[in-house]
């Protein structure tokens, strides 16, 4: 279960009114699953809604990996283009290896980014995916995607960004570096990683 995805996009280095509002926003205190279930028991419709929302978590603490204390385990990033195989980055291993793997993207193509992750132990509130793109060391783009809140589950959960158009034209071709961050309303850093892509006139086949 997730909230409605939203995306904010601004040129790097410019602060918008929306960012100023966010800077004064204070998220509500985190509540455990037990506290959420115990509240408003007299409201039958609300109780049923919370039970449907929490799913597996009602039966007890959902722990997928007992050796990993994190609440959010980010597993994979995929670059998705219609009628093509997904280009995937494994985020469960050594993140420094990602610099050796460069996505090649055809200029002007429409794509989405999908992030696969596991939520365990407790509900996570207000997940966000922040992506900053650089070319030749200079910032060229920043996107913030509001992913939503998720209950713990044994299955992998996913978030897919709205469609984006890759840059096009002779000046747009070349190599780009991306800094990605998976965070939340409480500013917990669930994962931060760097990856690269290259814009070409056509796909590398």
From TrEMBL:
Xref: SUPFAM superfamilies: E set domains
Gene Ontology cellular component annotations, sorted alphabetically: cytosol; membrane
GO biological process, one term: Rho protein signal transduction
Listed GO MF terms: Rho GDP-dissociation inhibitor activity
Pfam families xref list: Rho_GDI
Domain of life, source organism: Eukaryota
Family per similarity comment: Belongs to the Rho GDI family.
Role this protein plays: Inhibits GDP/GTP exchange reaction of RhoB. Interacts specifically with the GDP- and GTP-bound forms of post-translationally processed Rhob and Rhog proteins, both of which show a growth-regulated expression in mammalian cells. Stimulates the release of the GDP-bound but not the GTP-bound RhoB protein. Also inhibits the GDP/GTP exchange of RhoB but shows less ability to inhibit the dissociation of prebound GTP.
Protein name (database record): Rho GDP-dissociation inhibitor 3
